[in-house]
Amino acid sequence: MRLRYVDALRGIAALLVLWMHVANGYHALGPAPMRGSWLNDIFASIDIGRIGVVVFFLISGFVVPFSIHAGSAAPVRGFAIRRFFRLFPAYWLSVPLAAFAFFWAVGSPFSARELLVNLTLLQDLVGVRPAEGVYWTLLVELVFYALCVALLLGRSLFSARRIALIAAALAMAHLFAMFMYWLGKPVASVALSFWPLNLSVMLFGTLYRLHATGERDAAAALIMKTLGIFYAVALPFGAMLAVHKMPTYTIAYALGFIVFVAGTRVVRIATPLTDGLGRISYSIYLLHPIVAELIYLWLLRQPVASAWRTQHLAVYLAAVTALTLCAAALAYRFVEAPAIRLGHRLAARRERAGAHEGAAMPRAAEPAAT
Model's pTM, two decimal places? Predict the structure, then answer.
């Protein structure tokens, strides 16, 4: 059963990322000063795009582990099949389109090897350029899927206390890495230092869901509240004390956390509009840079002082949003939705086959009950 308020959060998160990228890319399109450039200043000052990404990470933690059919005979294989068909078909659609928009359309090289490596989603691991910049978050998703499987096999995926301890350890790993960076003795790159924080945020989403569904472990509840204070208060203000200013990324993580909690507990939005936005949010996320870039390239061909390049920034935001929604709706209907249905069918078949194999095992070969 879909959680409509989660769909609303997905839609909001996707639009925040879109608006950040469009404002950042279009604010210098016409003669300076561009009308509405204050929008870009506001969006950049709190990094609304990263707020959207943080909300996406929290939603993944809130939803993904609970999509594993732990009681089935083949939970890992079923989960892997469903997630593969959820993630990759729409992603594969976006890769050549992104290569065209960001490279081939402007005469920049993007080789067949780079394209093929991008199709694996492992480009960041092997030092190959991504076709578009948003793909890094999908690799984080893949790692989170692997972490979910490891926790499932270790009988810890639905243990609130163990999830809480791991989430806290990851948050502390990020804090340690950034502290060493501040001291001038970095133990990891800045980009690598964010991996523990992102995985901690995702596990917080899992812990939050466990708590909401009745998992009442006092230690886990205490750690969950402490992590909430860390994300929303300690992280931004601690960074401010260290560097004597409020780093933008800490504001974004704090606000992303607040938006998620507000949207799941305080104001649960459930409307037909947000239902639809939530369904196509993944395609919005993947396709908006492509739509924005192609429109931008066309606008650059127009005279600098023409009406095409002197509109209020809000006009460009509205135009890119509208065209992206159209493209995303088509991608969802013809790529995402069929792939999701196929994934569910194949996963169910695999799980049924696993059940039949288990039933056919000789009695002596069955594992002892625990």
Answer: 0.93
